[in-house]
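pasting for the record
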Amino acid sequence: ANLNAITFVTLRGIQACLDSAQCYEGDCIQIGDDILNYCTAPCGEGDSCPKGYECDLSGDASADKQCMPIVGTCSCTPATAGAKRTCTSVNEFGSCLGWSTCDAEKGWIDCTADTPAQELCDGLDNDCDGVIDNGLEAPPCEKQEGVCANSVKTCGGTKNWLNCGTGTLPDSYEPVELSCDGLDNDCDGSADMIDVDKDGHIAAACGGDDCDDLNPISYKGAVEFCGDGADNDCSGTAEDKDADNDGHIDVACGGDDCNDNSALAKPGLSEVCGDGLDNDCDGGIDNKDSDDDTFLDPACGGNDCNDSDAGINPLAKEQCDMVDNDCDGVVDKIDIDNDGHISLACGGDDCDDLNPLSYPGATEFCGDGADNDCSGTAEDKDVDNDGQIDVACGGTDCNDNSSLAKAGLEEVCGDGLDNDCDGSIDNKDVDNDSFLDPKCGGTDCNDKEKSVHPGAVEQCDGLDNDCNGTVDDKDLDGDGFIDVACPNGSDCDDDAISVNPGMDEVCGDDGQVDEDCSGKDGDKDVDQDGQTDANPLCDAGTDCDDYDSNVYKGAVEIYDTKDSDCDGTVDEGLIAKGAVIVTEIMANPASVGDGYGEWFEVTNVSEKTVNLASWVVTDENTPTTDKFVLPVSASVLVEPGQSAVLCRNADPLLNGGVICDFGYDDFILAQKGDEIILSLAGVEIDRVAYGGMGWKPTLAGVSLNLDPVKFDPATNDLGGSWCYSPKSPESSIPGGDTGTPGTQNLSCGPFAN
């Protein structure tokens, strides 16, 4: 290591110098941005510099290496880390002073000096020349007319440029011009145009015609108002309103002119009718009443027929004086009671001018003692002129308004009158059966026949006795069929609801009743095919289905799942061999005994519905004893693709829970092997012989199951087509045995058994 360098740096510090002669074995050089020159120490190979220095060329003419500060400055060393010194930011606008901090590794950093900027009116020294808001050119004021010419805005510091106004404009400036000095004080371009109240008229002091420039409704030509104390029209006098120039001041201004808009209305004038004015200012318009009788002249819309005579008006009493006193247009029309008829004294026809109900033509009233109709007789009321006095006047006429109602007349229906004066209206009952004539609102369809009325018993007499609208429709039993005694009747016993042509004949009834009214008992033929029901109780019955007209003895047998020809067999000769096959056998039940639990299943593999009625099931060895026949009445219908289950016992509570379609007795399924032969009318349809060669032995509680793919009459008799019913939820019979009676057989796969 260079001991001299180390000693120089550590003991003597970093020494400022003017030239190298002042430095011990070193150079005097400028380092970094320091203003002063500093002495360095030379270094070479094997020499090391103090901490914070490195051996590097000094940068002057000497080629010797010197110990130079790593941070590139001598004023900021590890020893002075954290020290601060001044710094500047300089550009074309000026120079701003700040502080920088010594960082032992980076040197002087983070100068805080602001960047100089163009000076603005903002209360800041933007260019750092020490003066705030200096050297600025003020903008002109908005107003440049009159005394405001060449005025400029004032800088308000942080408030920027202040708006022009009082304090910034000349002292002669007035926001509202008030001075008549020949100047445009409000800077609006016009001098001495003083209009303080803004009514469009210049103040009189400035040569205008506004006598009160502080009142916007006072100026030359304005309308004079009353009550404001002002000279609105600048006439020189306040409250002198005379708009119509009739010499009378408006009443609102204390005058007596009730209508200051018209010279035709003022005190002293006469009222004129029809002009709509209060001409005399008495408070009433068109109210001329010259005679002061409170009724106006007709010209003014009044009804005083003579406005010059107070004794003549609409309320005056008419006199016999040849004058129209009451203004009704008729002279001497005295009608004191106002009934429209003139008194007899004035040549009229009113026999009692004090009673408004008495005059010729008036209705005579009963009980008032007056001659209302001026007939010369009181209480003689006969309004309808039928010759009978009103009952109210002691007469016998119950309705004095109609000559069709009086004592002695016959009642007439439909006129709403009590024609015979018996106290009831429209109560005509000629036959006295207590039911009124329909014209009188009654229900008696024939008021001349006492046997005809609602509720009467219908008879075969050519009359509508019960008034139901139909003649001779006697149906006492209410079965809808008319008694045969009546024309067009067909009910042979109208007292029995169960006997009529619509009923089915009942064979063997004790009473020997002809229920269908055919004229013969026991001839039941409901379907009307000409053959009587085959019921032995019916007469010569041969029809095995009396509700189907296509079924009867001798008919042609057709494929319809019925015994069409009534020979005791169904569809014989029409069922193809193999149409129905045996598909499942339970010959060894475990849940119950054989006598209860044996069953087998057959399936319809044809395309038509098959009725198993009249089919015979036998075995091979004892076909006459080990067999059973499904009777025609059984009607076991098997749809295409569906199955039927035939059981030795059909009760699920006894046979282990099997649902059966038919139960038989005389047929046994041997456990070691047996035959099931299906035949119809001597024709074998299918045969299965189980237990032989190739067949699995029967297994207790498990049915023999024909594989679904072997549902064919050619393969269902082969043992290899069968398997034990596989155990699964689908093959679980409620009693505990295994099988699928009446449902889809399970597949005999490779692991079925």
